[in-house]
Design goal:
Organism: Pseudonocardia charpentierae
Number of domains: 3
Keywords: Glycosyltransferase, Hydrolase, Transferase
Largest sheet: 6 strands, antiparallel
Number of helices: 10
Radius of gyration: 25 Å
Pfam family, one: Glyco_hydro_130
GO molecular function: hydrolase activity
Distance between the termini: 23 Å
Family: Belongs to the glycosyl hydrolase 130 family.
Number of strands: 28
CATH class of the largest domain: Mainly Beta
Length: 498
């Protein structure tokens, strides 16, 4: 059968020059005289002669000003964050304040270790394009020092004859401004129920919250809980956990003058303190919103969470709940089916499954679609992003892990009206690591977080061994032909055992 995949020559690689200016606090351990190291550093800065302050600050500006959109603003903000350490009777010049901020600032290279695991969706702005062309948004997982993951973006265009180009990203990146948001009581209750706490105190809190609530309403309820601490000895711990759960939902807004590729979604909440991993973006047809599930990692546990945006400038991050919203690799369908939200799930870390939801927040028990059965996937299965709707059914790109922990990309075809029914599953991989894709941060891996339909083709971006992002075009009619010929997994097993 004719090959249905054509690789593009276009590739993206990590650029260590893309840096954030972040707060830097010297080691949290105490110094030899039992003082905070931050206090000792600050004392030495305050002792500098004023003429030396000017010379050092001038050198900082010469070396770093062009690397950041607003370096003076960053230095001032970081000074303000440690200003409580400055004695009340000390008056500082503006230059010394900025220099204090510089000593408590460092650059973090967002892509220093890796750039990989992309997803692609149609850009919200399609103006100015010729017929047959599509502008797209590419989300990327970037990894820097300490294996800390964040989400970056690029934009590009794809043409009718397989033309593909990625826009230059620009000289700066920014993490945006964090804003408070509203909370969903159902998701909040599920998160609280998952903690090892006094159920009675948890029920006290949940019963007094509205279906949607804000920080002020939560704090009012927690104040009422504290008022009953004599008969509720776990009230303080329940309140601490409730605040931590609330902190996992927030909004991020970027200045309008920033370009898409200059925006990075940086870990902001307790649940993602060690990284935001593998965002699977999809355009949702019925409300004009883009949604993405991603893996939040706090250093010891993982959880799927939700990103929502309409313009890729303001984002809302919130929690998901329910038995199917566990582990890595949730992927949302682009529309409801039978009036319900639908998602792919890998709640058990091994099998591809499907789940539904009434509200898109609470996800019930998952139903298994596919279990590992072929040599290239025997270790585990997963999806490679949201399903793509075609006239023949839902195309689900999958990944399987085989010998030597080699990752390959496969595919399923699900029934349009009943996506729990598998029409076909590829016997052999659709994409395997090519010889020049096998070396990298994690060798022998091809992995995607979402493809984009463009006419009768899929634009498939994929990470190659966590070292680069490559692109391939998949012929949809040929893929559907292969899937239909191979049939569902059960038929494959029966044929192989016959």
């Amino acid at each position: 059968m004719k090959a249905c995949v054509t690789r593009s020559h276009v590739a993206l690689t990590a650029d260590p020059a893309r840096v954030l200016a972040r707060l830097f606090v010297p080691g949290q351990e105490l110094s030899h005289d039992s003082r905070s190291r931050a206090s000792g550093v600050l004392g030495r800065i305050l002792a500098l002669p004023e003429d030396e302050v000017g010379a050092v600050l001038s050198r900082v500006r010469d070396r770093y000003l062009k690397r950041h959109r607003d370096l003076p603003g960053v230095l001032t903000a970081n000074y303000e964050r440690i200003a409580h350490r400055v004695p009340d009777d000390v008056v500082l010049s503006d230059a010394r304040r900025s220099l204090v901020g510089a000593w408590f600032t460092h650059e973090y290279s967002v892509e220093a270790a890796a750039l990989f695991n992309p997803s692609a969706v149609a850009h919200p702005d399609q103006t100015g394009l010729e017929p047959g062309w599509t502008r797209f948004v590419l989300s990327l997982r970037a990894v820097g020092e300490g294996h800390l993951s964040s989400v970056e973006f690029r934009s590009g265009v794809v043409g009718p004859a397989g033309e593909l180009s990625i826009d230059e990203p620009g000289p700066h990146i920014e993490r945006g401004r964090t804003l408070p948001t509203w909370y969903d009581r159902g998701a909040f209750a599920a998160a609280l129920a998952g903690q090892d706490i006094d159920r009675e105190s948890a029920a006290f809190v949940i019963a007094r919250l509205a279906p949607r609530f804000h920080d002020a309403e939560l704090e009012a309820v927690l104040a009422d809980l504290a008022g009953e601490r004599l008969t509720r000895p776990t009230a303080a711990r329940t309140a601490d956990l409730a605040r931590r759960i609330a902190a996992c939902s927030y909004e991020v807004e970027f200045p309008p003058e920033t370009a898409l590729a200059e925006r990075v979604l940086w870990p902001e909440s307790p649940s993602e303190s060690h990284g935001i991993e593998d965002a699977r973006f999809v355009g949702v047809d019925d409300d004009g919103v883009y949604r993405a599930t991603y893996t939040a990692f706090d250093g010891s546990s993982i959880a799927p969470q939700l990103i929502e945006t309409s313009d890729f400038r303001r984002f809302r991050i919130s929690q998901l709940a329910g038995p199917a919203a566990r582990n890595k690799g949730m992927a949302l369908f682009p529309r409801r089916v039978g009036g319900r939200y639908v998602a792919l799930s890998r709640w058990d870390r091994e099998n591809n499954a499907i789940a539904t939801s009434v509200d898109g927040v609470w996800w019930g028990d998952a139903r298994t679609l596919q279990t590992p059965s072929r040599p290239w996937e025997l270790l585990q299965l997963g999806n490679c992003g949201s399903p793509i709707e075609t006239e023949a059914g839902w195309i689900v790109l999958t990944h399987g892990v085989g010998p030597m922990r080699e990752y390959a990309i496969g595919a399923l075809l699900l029934d349009l009206d009943d996506p729990s029914r598998v029409i076909g599953a590829l016997r052999d991989p659709l994409v395997e690591p090519a010889d020049d894709e096998r070396d990298g941060y994690v060798p022998n891996v091809v992995y995607s977080c979402g493809a984009l339909r463009h006419g009768d083709q899929l634009l498939l971006p994929y990470g190659a061994s966590d070292a680069s992002v490559r692109f391939a075009f998949v012929d949809i009619p040929l893929l559907v032909e292969r899937l239909t010929a191979d049939g569902p997994p059960d038929a494959m097993r029966e044929n192989s055992s016959a």
